[in-house]
User: Fold this.
Amino acid sequence: MRPVRATAPRLAAAGLLLVLAGCVSTTTVTLTPGPQRPVCDASARALVLWQPRWRPDQKDMAARETAAADGLASFVASAGCFASATLQRLPDNAANRVPPLLVEPGAGPDTVVVVTVRELGPTLALGASPALVDGATEVRLDLAVSTRAQPMPRAFTVQWRNGGPGVVKGVATLAQDLQAALAAALQPRAP
Assistant:
């Protein structure tokens, strides 16, 4: 038997296969506390209030806020989460709590959802894996939900991450990533 020699093209091909094997994106979702029952109700009228609360060292706040607004608007318009929904941005100094629902049946929304955007952006860790680069986009939302049936608000957090070893992500998908995090948290029914 003849020994097999590793040539430069074979080594390059093997290296490329290893890099590609490490470039698989995975999505993880953590609800705290979890699990949560679905918030979406296809027969309800909803008021969705939102506000950003960035960390002090957050970069590109204006661009992230635009992506958050776009993602929220797209989710409210197309997810089928509620029969109808109104989206409003809260002022920067607004309290992080659910306003009381009107008691009269038929007046005002059936559900109020307050979404506080804590994190929305790409992350990158160098040397964190054998692929040398570990990147992702992350979304962290604090949610407070009140309904006519349960006026005492329930609060929970969703931490959504898509990425992995060998992945480098930018800001182009942030609006879609926020929509995916909202879908994971509010749980609309599949059509």
Q: What stands out?
A: The domain at 24-186 is CATH 3.40.50 (Rossmann fold). Confidence is low (pLDDT under 50) at residues 8-22. Strands lie at 26-32, 41-52, 82-89, 111-126, 133-147, 154-165. The two ends are 61 Å apart (CA to CA).
